[in-house]
Amino acid sequence: MRKTCFQFLLTLLAFSAMARDGANDGMISITNLSPTDVLVEVDGRRYPVNNTTLVLRNITSGYHQLKVYARKPKTLPGPRTMIYNKNVYVKPKYYVDIIINRFSRALIDEQLITDNRYDVDDRNDENNAAVNDHPRNDYPAPNTAPRLIDDATFTAFVETIKHESFDDSRMAIAKSGVDQHYFTSAQAKQIISLFSFESSKLQIAKYMYGKITDTKNYFIVYSAFTFSKSKEELGEYIRNYK
């Protein structure tokens, strides 16, 4: 009987160790496409979103209190404006993506973490962003999680780009979204067509190629260009792409 109890205790300890090793942890990212800087608070800990996207890794499964505030300069009086305040449920091994669009509305999506696409460097993850006066430098390399964009998020993404008046601001928003998702060739053509200048179209067409799920169909984006020279340059870029 004592031997059976001892074996049960060892098994219990083994399962406890597995639960602590982070194998079932999830991730949360907040992408800010609004014109205002935002401050994120997760379970009482605050993080500024300085470079468009904040990625939080090793999030234990379960509910987490998430608040997003529009940041104000220290010289301005009054409280911050709350944009988002909800308990977000993170499933085991799931990636939760929250996008604050141009109108300061939050869109939320999730997807199962299935491969190493989440191992891309990001300079604005939790390691560099915490605002609690105690730096955390003991973490492994930060992550982002680009993935195929869903229809609702793509529609919001396109509308956000459309509302910008100049190609430079459209480009900044477009690149921040491309960094976080994968796209079809048809979606890429739609985004490329939002730009006014041929040089801008070529720039975003090159930038998106590495995030296309059906590259064999990328030829359809050529119809978004006016000049043959642009098509030739894009074709040369694709042929040399590694």
Describe the structure.
The chain is of the alpha+beta class. The protein folds into 2 domains: 2-145, Immunoglobulin-like (Sandwich), CATH 2.60.40; 151-239. The chain is built from 7 helices and 10 strands. The chain has helices at residues 2-20, 126-129, 151-162, 167-178, 185-192, 198-209, 228-239; strands spanning 26-32, 38-42, 45-49, 53-59, 62-70, 81-90, 94-100, 106-112, 147-148, 181-182. The chain has a 4-stranded mixed sheet, with no helix packed on it. It has a 4-stranded antiparallel sheet with strand order 3-2-5-6, with no helix packed on it. α4 runs parallel beside α6 (198-209). The protein starts with a helix and ends with a helix.
Provide mean pLDDT, rounded.
76
CATH architecture of the largest domain: Sandwich
Strand % is 25-35%
Corresponding CATH superfamily of the largest domain: Carboxypeptidase-like, regulatory domain
Number of helices: 7
Number of separate domains: 2
| Helix percentage range | 25-40%
The multimeric state of the shown protein is single chain
Span between N and C termini? Answer: 63 Å
Low-confidence stretches: 8-20, 116-124, 127-145
